[in-house]
Amino acid sequence: MGNAVFLILFVIFCAILVGCGVISKRWVRESSDYILAGREISTFINMIGVCAIGFAGTTVALAPGFAIQLGLTASFTWGIIYGICGLLLFAVLFANFIRRCGAQTLPEYLEMRYDGKVRSVVAITSVVGMAGILANNIVSCTNAIAGYTKWNTTVIMAVIFLVIIAFTFISGLWATTLTDFFQVTLGVIIVPTTLILLSQKYGWFDAINAAWPGGNVWAAGLTGATLPGAVPTYPSVLNFIICFAAALVWGNNYYWMKIANCRSEKVARKSFILAAIILIVVFCIPLGIMGAYAGAFLGDAFAAPYGSGAVAPTGAHGLIASTFPALLGSFVVIGAVAASISTASTSALGASAVATRDIYQRLVNPKADTKTALKASKWIMVLIGVLTWVLCLFPGGPTYLFAFANCWLVPPAILLGLGAIWPRFNSRGAICGALAGMITMAVFTLLGDVLKIITVNSYIYLATLGFLVTLIVAVLASLTGKPKYYGESGWERVPTATNRKDVKLDDTDRKILEMIRLGHCYMADLTDALGVDSKTSGASIENLDQGGYIVRAGLSGSKFYTFSITEKGLAALPGLTGAEAEMAKEGLNPLYLGLLKVVMENPENQAEYIQKNGIKSMRMSSICSHLTRQGYIIEGGLFKRKLRITDKGAAAVRKYA
Known about the structure:
The chain contains 29 helices and four strands. The chain is an all-alpha fold. Helix 9 (173-202) packs antiparallel against helix 15 (326-364), helix 11 crosses helix 18 (410-421) and helix 22 runs antiparallel to helix 28.
């Protein structure tokens, strides 16, 4: 009876996911829509998307598992570190930087900051890392279903795999956006409801403490073990920070994409902060308490040394589901399935985005048009699926898969941080540090987890070792190499008559100068408007900077990608006269004014205006970001961007009509 009920709910669940892909298909016109949703994502939708990543199979397994193994304080500490040190701090430190730099993927930024070799290495290894996280969530989902239904794991895995590939293949990020909304809604209902039912059945913390060995569920796990602090072995507070903040978030391309796809840096920052709070309060803390209930009242079902049964501590969620009536138990398991699939689909898209933009469009078919690139994106998704299927067979199950994935995500986090704050850091340091860290972790994963020759985790956690190796090698190697011009001693940020060199301007340089004259001040505006890879716009900006035509707002952080035009830059452009000159002073041109007029008179004609003028989705993002900063429009809309004209915008239309 229980399996039949679960099967019905599972079929309905899968049908809704695929249906979301079909519904959102009409929103995808080019590869940038497929992997970045045209930078149209709103605060609420991005908050849901980040929540969906955090509400993962890993969270469903680890939050209850740590409570059983190390006590509630350890479980809560893990959740807070992931939410605060990972998501919230990432947004506070990097939201402006990532959104303004314009790179669609993390490897794309690495080429703009360093060189093509760094991008190639990180792109290839990032695909493997994100495929590992995808495989981890598929295996976690499979185990959750198999533990409840006792069905064949291979069949379950195949079905989960096909469902994920199906809806992401159809519509990419738009599909995952809609499905995330559905899956997080399920989680928000199921997790707190399960906790309430458990409290009604068993009582609150006094009842848990009374049944807990040692009488204090906060201080220690079932066996009396506690969470260490700054020790190199796992688990510890130190390793939680390195693994679940630096590696899992800071060096992960799909978290980069979750900032890059937002309408503005303010939207990105606010959505991450809200998501971090929701994840801690609604998911991590309740799931930890659920683990405490399982340990206190179902402890005998766990495997030694926790009990006399066969269930692992990470299987506490499924164990609790099995104690409920069929319908309720099936809903609880569906919640775990939703958690796994939501993160798995984002991992699949993150890997596909890197493979498409950083490998296919750059190394395989640089001349691919938008239709060809979109088609390639979808088939690359299928290839990612094949790689994921192989990784699902990785020895050791979800735990080792997660460690394997982190091997490839720690080094990019360091390259991001050093590149953002240290102008002197160069490509030699980046490539040497990345290779040293990745090779070190890959070798010890093979020797320890696969061949069982030496287990380095007995002495230092693998991600921590990789972090230290990458950081030390990167810094030392960088000191032996020559930095880019802005990292050299004596370089002055503000140009004068004597501190710049003569450079020749090409068509791209002039187009960028014209946009900066108009008030487009961020690199993202320039890259999106030109429809080019960041390496092209980045090289042009460096040329203009060295020639004294522009000035950067600063040499680190988001100011590094914020520009203004100099007198020399203005002199290099054809002069404007009449109304066009007046409009330029106010950040407008005839195209932008025409859009404002359409928005004011009949917003329904916006799509026709865009199509008539051949404005692609990323260029539209550039225009909207600029007009919003200038105060002419307000961007709204839950899913798709909807423009509303301001009083200033209406006044401009009347002035130049």
